[in-house]
Amino acid sequence: MGQDALWYEAAMTVGITNAHNVVADALALDDPLSALLAPVSEAEPSPEIEEIFAEIRDFYQRADVPLCFRLVAHDAGYLADIWQATRHVFSDNNLTRRMKEALAFGVSVTSRSTFGTAFHLEEMRRLGVSHAGIMEVLGVTQMFSSYTKIADALQLEPDMAHIAPVDTTPAPGMV
Asked: What is the CATH number of the domain that holds 42?
């Protein structure tokens, strides 16, 4: 995996961010009365759920459990799996947690996720990203999103295949 480790780590960050955003934005609408699924209450969860909730609160250094986790907590196994993946992906590794939160913010802005945009903006601030840093992430996100929309509208084909040909080998661990 060596030189591709950063790319795989970034891809996993994008994937788990999308998973959180899909759950939170699709199931818990702005109006709690019209929500498709009520989040699990933090007041009296089962001991198994409370243990995971405590880990989540500790990881994010906050008093409450983010909405996406409270929604999947209706299934303890699902919560445990998505929490394990989240903790693994968002921990410092080749990419720092701050970098991953910036990437998650960009993904959330681009996909117009109300939950994700607010959540990852809050996380970037908590991790010390300045206002100027946030504006830089937003500017880069806007630039690439705009270029992609222009290319899509013009139905452009990639013209750099000769520089980076498609790698058809499976991802590490997939053989």
From this structure: 1.20.1290.10
